Amino acid sequence: MEVDLRGIFAEKFGDSEGTKEYFSPGRVNLIGEHTDYNGGHVFPCALTMGTYAVARKRTDDMIYLYSANVKHAGVIEASRIALENRKAYGWANYPLGVVWAFSERGKAIDSGFEMVIWGNIPNGSGLSSSASLEVLTGVVLCDLFGYDFSMTDLALIGQFSENNFNGCNCGIMDQFAVANGKKDMAMFLDTSDLSMEYANISLPDAKIVISNSKVKHSLVDSAYNDRRMECSTALEELQTVTDINSLGDLNEEEFEKHKDAIQSDVCRRRAKHAVYENQRTIKAVEALKNNDIATFGKLMNESHVSLRDDYEVSCPELDVLVDLAWSQPGVIGSRMTGGGFGGCTVSIVKNDQVEAFKENVGKGYKEKTGIEAEFYVVDIGDGARVIG
Ligand code: GLA
Description:
This protein is α+β, with helices and mostly antiparallel strands.
């Protein structure tokens, strides 16, 4: 860790006697985008970048939270009793939402606590800093108060708090990936029943490279919720002609057969993406298991085209990054990753081309957008845990 978090804790709360230390990763999704609220598959992995916490129980009812990334906000104070989302809490609404969600699950904490956090997931980059913080808080609360939720339960609690305390209607992918990550493994998760299989993603001759567009367009949350609604309209219309529970129940042929039941062109394109993306994800994992990384890359590229044209969640900056990546030698596949409208792309790049990739894509992006992109050659790490 680049900061002395226990030192900061002592500075804020007098001493660091009896504290414990925790870590929770960020995530990158390799393929399977906007499928997690459509009963489809996703294929994310946890990063070694993430959020750290040092925490300690108190004897009164007060919760004190400090982020070394948001120093100007100072120490945020709240009582554990009757928690509600408040604008003034800022970033602290994420951990407080998890405290609230624990009590909604019948596991109210019986005293306050103090916690200092610091993270190295670039802000607003779409690498799940909020899910990381939610699951981190879940791990802290279990450890301090002796609750034994499973990691998947902690993911569900994180999602519940984000949906109901923080008002973002996200799916389960991010919290699940952060909670259940495993070194060198990606998670092939079926969101219809939360069954999951790990698949080794440590490639002998290629690296996973994340390119940060450094933009975040303001429509993210409303556009996300619109997409969810368009998919549920499409599902309802399809259910008048075929017996399905989610868009993930259809394969391409079945979709083509029934698609005319969907009234609007927009909803039909959204549903097409959800169905085809789910099938692409299943095929991509199959290809990876057969060491056919070229097919995996081709499916990543197709995923981007579908997100750009049918789902319409890309943006000019992400398209520039992906177009530049596609034109580089040694690029096996490249696509936007996460919710979209800014954030990052993920590319698989041959080891000996990584430096040229960073240089050429960075230069081309700067020329076209005036923005300095950032690149992270990432390692795939373990999920959220107590570290000391
Ligand atoms: C965001 C959400 C996830 C998922 C992705 C798109 O990251 O939090 O649940 O829907 O967008 O795949």
